Amino acid sequence: MPRAILLLSVLAGLLVGAAPASAVTITCDPGEYLLVRGENPTIENLRAHNLPRKTDGYAPRCLVAEAIAAEIQRPLQQGRKAPRTVSIMGAQWSSGKWRCSYPGDRAVCKKRGKPRRRVTMRLV
To answer: Rounded to whole angstroms, how far apart are CA atoms 40 and 102?
Structure first.
């Protein structure tokens, strides 16, 4: 009997250890990578949802999120319309194409595919 309980507890531990990680939301500090500058609009509440730890094996989640925020902020500061699609890349990485929408005073950029990846922010 004790052997069966031990065996069941070991199996339960293996099943829990093999379960996929839950959805991860990371809050980023705008300006950490010096891509977001100035005001009009100011970027607040920058969040990365379900982004991999390293995009293309190189770029951290908050770098990708801040690069997307900078691509949205730049045209708005120049008096142009906010972009509907954004393509983000660095010297050693690319995160592909993101579709952006602007409900209210927020911006939401989504990437197609699974898991559902998105970057959200508030435009003040």
So the answer is: 15
